[in-house]
Design a protein that fits this description.
The protein is α+β, with helices and mostly antiparallel strands. It is built from 9 helices and 6 strands; from the N terminus they run αβααββααβααββαα.
């Protein structure tokens, strides 16, 4: 209950912030995930299914409505000769009520109540998918913002190179082809900036769709967020994986539901009851008022009726065994995938660190050295452009690898469901 109140307060504050400011508001990843949990239509669909099944369970112990009737009884056809008063027949009132076996009602209620728990685990599994999708979009957006910063800096450098080339060409310190090449590189960088702006807008729209927010709301991501990989020590602990994965817990709930359904089918061997009361009022004089009161009981153990529920119980035993095997397969596969991803993430993190601390700094020094030589008229423009392109490509490759690393972390956390 407290968590729901916190989410509502968070959403109200976020909503007020969006309305109060015309500029885009920075929204944290935690806020995104909280809004998805509260407002995403797919999750609301699961909530409604759970409410529906709970409602069905509440009404499952109801009895059938009583039946009442009124009409002639032993009434002679028109034109028939009546010999005695008793031949005139009766007016008959009848009432009957089916009385279900309480054991059956309890078994049915338990079965329907268990079905809602399956949907609850399905909701958690769907939220895990949506959470991973939102994280992927959020991280991709952050990387594109980083790329924009790099490209704006490269745009400044490309513009500087172009201006130097245009100044030197009239002084016979460069050729016209180099000027055009520098101009083309500048336009390429500007074109990439336009492309990234389009991609960022696409990520913004996708994130708002997941949060079920109107398209006119303006949001931005928090680019200062720190994203790190924390390997988990439960890779060989099947019990912990079992407890964390909602799809595995959903299988457990499905097995539990099937066992309760078996109890419901076994309850079909219990008898049902019916009571019937008939009241007859004679049409002729001298006849007494009469009644009948009958109690009835079903005999479900008859061979021609018991075969159905017995076969249902047998069939569900096989289905339960299949679900157990499916659960074992998921746990084994998860262990293998987590182990492989952990090794891959550690290796990939080292590659990214090499880009950040060794490759890019070395290429930046190379560019500065070549640029200094060019300013002193000791180097040609194509060499400068080549050094700048090498540095630019390394920076963009670093960010591409960083994005891939973030997505690997998302997949790892999705497998662990955290």
């Amino acid at each position: 209950m407290k968590s729901n109140i916190k989410i509502i307060i968070l959403f109200a504050g976020f909503w007020f912030g969006l309305i109060s400011w015309s500029n885009a508001q920075v929204i944290s990843l935690d806020s995104v995930l909280s809004l998805i949990a509260m407002k995403n239509p797919t999750l609301q669909q699961y909530d409604n299914k759970v409410h529906a099944l709970n409602a069905y369970a509440e009404g499952s112990k109801s009895w059938m409505a009583p039946m009442v009737g009124f009409g002639p009884y032993w009434y002679p056809y028109p034109g028939q000769k009546v010999m005695e008063n008793r031949d005139k027949g009766f007016w008959m009132f009848t009432a009957e009520q089916d009385i279900p076996n309480p054991y059956k009602l309890n078994a049915k209620k338990n079965y329907l109540a268990a079905k809602s728990s399956v949907e609850e685990q399905g909701r958690k599994q769907q939220f895990n998918n949506l959470r991973a999708e939102a994280r992927s979009i959020y991280y991709q957006w952050i990387v594109r913002e980083k790329k924009l910063s790099v490209l704006h800096e490269n745009e400044r450098i490309a513009d500087l190179i172009l201006k130097l080339a245009q100044i030197r060409y009239p002084l016979n310190q460069g050729n016209l082809g180099s000027v055009y090449k520098a101009e083309a590189r500048l336009h390429e960088v500007q074109n990439m900036i336009l492309m990234l702006h389009g991609e960022i807008e696409g990520k913004r729209l996708m994130l708002k769709v997941l949060m079920n927010l109107p398209s006119q709301f303006k949001i931005d991501v928090d680019t200062t967020i720190q994203i790190h990989f924390h390997p988990d020590n439960i890779l060989t602990d099947t019990l912990t994986i079992h407890e964390q994965r909602s799809d595995i817990r959903q299988i457990d709930k499905m097995i539990e539901t099937m066992r309760l359904n078996q109890q419901l089918q076994r309850a079909q061997a219990k008898p049902d009851f019916k009571i019937r009361f008939d009241h007859m009022s004679p049409r002729g004089s001298g006849m007494p008022q009469q009644f009948t009161l009958m109690g009835m009981i079903s005999i479900p153990i008859a061979p021609w009726s018991s075969k159905m529920y017995k076969s249902e119980i047998t069939g569900m035993n096989y289905e339960i065994e299949a679900l157990n095997k499916s659960k074992e397969a998921i746990i084994t596969q998860t262990q293998g995938e987590l182990s492989a991803m952990s090794v891959q993430l550690n290796s990939h993190a080292q590659q990214i660190e090499n880009y950040k601390t060794k490759i890019i700094p070395a290429l930046q020094k190379n560019y500065k050295t070549v640029m200094l030589a060019y300013e002193e008229n000791k180097e040609q423009l194509p060499i400068v452009i080549g050094a700048w392109e090498a540095m630019n490509m390394a920076q963009m490759e670093y960010l591409n690898q960083l994005e891939e690393h973030y997505l690997m972390i998302v997949n790892y956390e999705k497998q662990l469901e955290r």
